[in-house]
Fold this sequence. Notes:
The protein is α/β, with parallel strands linked by helices. Helices cover 41% and strands 15% of the residues. The protein has helices spanning 18-29, 42-54, 69-81, 84-87, 112-121, 123-136, 161-181, 208-211, 222-233, and strands spanning 9-12, 33-38, 58-63, 93-96, 142-147, 186-193, 244-247. Strands 3-2-1-4-5-6-7 form a 7-stranded parallel β-sheet, sandwiched between helices. The longest helix has 21 residues, at 161-181. The chain is globular.
Amino acid sequence: MSRPLENKLALVTGSSRGIGAAIAIRLAADGAYVIVNYAASPARAEKVVKEIRNAGGNAEAVGADLSTVQGINKLIASIDQVFGASFGGRLDILVNNAGTVVFGPFMEGAEDSYDKHFNLNVRPLIALSKDAARRMLPQKWGRIINIGSIHGESAPIPGVTMYVATKFAVHGFTRGLSRELGATGVTVNAVQPGFIDTELSPANGQAEDMKKLTSVGRFGRVEEIASAVAFLAHPESAFINGENLTVDGGWSA
C-alpha cells in the first residue's frame, strides 16, 4: 500500500469526531503521524487514536480548547513537548478543522454568538497557521489545509449569518496566505464541504430536503472530505495553491 505521507507529522484540529476524525484516520493510513486534537472529549479522541493504531498507524491525542488563547498556546507548545524528540519541532501538515455553528436569526442572536464563531472558526486558524508556517519554512515543504464550507462562497440557507462571515474569512485567508508562502514550498489550500452526514448534521429528518438540492441526491460522507484533504496533502499536489476546493455533491453546480 502506498504511504505518501510516511514520516510526516500532521496536526488535525477538532479531530475527535466527524470530519476531523475521518481526516486523522486517512492521513494516518497514508503514513503520517497524527496529532488528534480535542477540546472536551478525551474518550472520543482516544477511540480515534486506537482505531489508527489498530490499523498500523501512529497517533497521539492532545487536549486543547482552541476557542481560548490559552488552548491555542497549549496546542502549539505540545508540538515541541510531546513530539520534539521525534520530529525536532517540525510540523509537516496542518489541517484547521475545528469549528462551530450557532443557528438562528441574526437579529435575535446573542452578542456572545459572534465571539463563539470567530473565536473558534477564525482565530485559531490564523494563529496555528502562523506557527505551522514558521516550522515549515526552514524545510521548504509543508501543507496548510483549512476546512471551510460552501457557506464560504454563498449563504444558501438563512439563520447562519455569522457562520457565513467566518467561512468567508477562511476562504479569503486561504488565498491571502497562499500568495505570501507560494514560493517557499509551503502550500495553503482549503476544502469547502457541502452537507455531510455527521453527528451534528445527520442525513435524516429535516435534512432530507437538503439532499434534493445536490445533483447526486445525497449527503456526503466524512471519508469523502478526508480524501480531498489527503489529495491536497500529497507531495504531488505541490502546484495546487490558494485553492478553495468545493466538495458538495453538486450543490453549487
